[in-house]
C-alpha cells in the first residue's frame, strides 16, 4: 500500500536547533583568495532533515565542515543549541558520515565500531553492548568479527552509519554517503536510514548531488548556487514522514524533484 494513503502524523518542534548567520568562507593560496561560500544563512529545527544540493565545487562540503566545527568561517556565526560547533562536537553531540566508510582494515567491524567510544573514554562494557545493539539495528549483528575487506560496499556503509551513532549524537552530518553505491543498494539504504532517523530522533544535514535523494530524505531542500556558494532556493518537502520506495514513483515526489531541478541554474 502506498504511504500516501496513510501519512504519519508527527508533532513539529518549532524551536531552532541550529542557526547559521551570514557565513562566508575564503581559502587562501599564497597571495590569492578564493571565496567558496558567501552570506549563507540557515536555521534548522530539532528533528528536521535538511538536504543541500548544488553543482560540484559550490561549497556544499565546506558548509558541512563549518557546521561540524572542523574549520572556522571567515565571517559569520553558527550556534547549535546555544553552543559553538567546536564545543558541540567536543561534547560528543555531532556524528559525521562521509562518502567513503573510512573503516580501518586491520580492525574488525566491532573494533571499528568501538573507536569513537575509545576516543571519548566510554565504559568498555557499555560501549561493546551499544556496538552490538547498533549493528543489530542495521542488520549486521552477524559480522561483528569480520574485517572491512570481507564486507560489501553497502555493508561497509551500514557499519559507518552505525558507528556514527556510537556516542549518541544529536546532530548527524552526511556528506554524500550513498554516492559510491549502486542504485539498488543506494535506494535500499535510503529507506533503512530514514527508519534509523525516526528511531534515534536525530537532526540531520545531508549534502548530496542527487535530487531524488535530497527530496526522499528531506523536510526541506536548500539549493546552492555555483561558487561562491549561496542559497538560491528553498523547497518545502510535503511528503509523509514515513517513507519507502513507493514514494519515489508518486506524482508528488516527481513534482518536487522538478521544483528542485528548476532552481539549479549554472
Q: Any overview of this molecule?
A:
By secondary structure, the protein is of the alpha/beta class. The protein has 2 domains: about 15-95 and about 170-265, 3-Layer(aba) Sandwich (Rossmann fold); about 105-170. The protein contains 8 helices and 9 strands. It has helices at about 60-70, 85-90, 110-120, 125-135, 155-165, 185-200, 210-215, 250-260, and strands at about 15-30, 30-45, 50-55, 75-80, 95, 170-175, 205-210, 220-225, 230-235. The longest helix has 18 residues, at about 185-200. The protein starts with 15 loop residues before the first strand and ends with a helix. The model is unreliable at about 1-15 (pLDDT under 50).
Distance between the termini: 39 Å
CATH superfamily membership of the largest domain, which one? P-loop containing nucleotide triphosphate hydrolases
Element-by-element helix/strand order = EEEHEHEHHHEHEHEEH
Helical amount among residues, as a percent range? 25-40%
* DSSP E strands, number: 9
Q: Return the domain count.
A: 2
Assign an overall shape. Answer: globular
Report the CATH C-level class of the largest domain. Alpha Beta
**From the coordinates shown, what is the CATH architecture of the largest domain?**
3-Layer(aba) Sandwich
Main beta sheet strand tally, sense and closure: 6 strands, mixed
Alpha-beta content class? alpha/beta
Could you tell me the CATH topology label of the largest domain.
Answer: Rossmann fold
Note the total helix count: 8
Strand content: 15-25%
Rg result: 19 Å
Q: For the largest sheet, list the strands in their spatial order.
A: 5-6-7-3-8-9
Mean pLDDT level: 86
Give unreliable regions as ranges: 1-14
Amino acid at each position: 500500500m502506498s504511504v500516501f494513503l496513510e501519512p504519519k502524523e508527527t508533532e513539529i518542534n518549532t524551536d531552532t536547533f541550529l542557526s547559521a548567520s551570514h557565513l562566508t568562507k575564503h581559502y587562501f593560496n599564497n597571495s590569492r583568495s578564493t571565496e567558496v561560500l558567501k552570506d549563507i544563512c540557515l536555521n534548522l529545527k530539532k528533528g528536521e532533515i535538511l538536504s543541500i544540493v548544488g553543482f560540484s565545487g559550490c561549497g556544499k562540503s565546506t558548509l558541512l565542515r563549518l557546521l561540524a566545527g572542523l574549520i572556522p568561517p571567515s565571517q559569520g556565526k553558527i550556534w547549535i543549541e546555544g553552543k559553538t560547533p567546536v564545543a558541540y562536537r567536543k561534547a560528543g553531540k555531532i556524528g559525521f558520515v562521509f562518502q567513503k566508510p573510512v573503516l580501518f582494515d586491520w580492525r574488525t567491524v566491532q573494533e571499528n565500531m568501538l573507536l569513537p567510544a575509545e576516543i571519548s573514554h566510554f565504559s568498555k562494557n557499555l560501549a561493546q553492548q551499544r556496538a552490538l545493539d547498533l549493528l543489530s539495528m542495521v542488520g549486521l549483528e552477524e559480522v561483528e568479527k569480520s574485517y572491512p575487506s570481507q564486507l560489501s560496499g553497502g555493508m561497509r556503509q551500514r557499519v559507518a552509519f552505525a558507528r556514527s551513532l556510537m556516542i549518541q549524537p544529536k546532530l548527524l552530518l552526511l556528506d554524500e554517503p550513498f554516492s559510491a553505491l549502486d542504485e539498488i543498494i543506494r535506494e535500499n539504504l535510503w529507506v533503512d536510514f530514514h527508519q534509523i532517523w525516526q528511531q534515534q530522533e536525530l537532526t540531520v544535514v545531508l549534502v548530496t548531488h542527487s535530487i531524488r535523494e535530497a527530496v526522499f530524505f528531506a523536510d526541506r531542500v536548500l539549493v546552492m548556487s555555483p561558487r561562491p556558494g549561496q542559497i538560491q532556493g528553498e523547497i518545502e518537502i510535503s511528503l509523509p514522514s514515513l517513507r519507502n520506495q513507493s514514494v519515489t514513483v508518486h506524482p508528488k515526489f516527481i513534482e518536487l524533484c522538478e521544483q528542485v531541478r528548476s532552481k539549479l541554474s549554472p
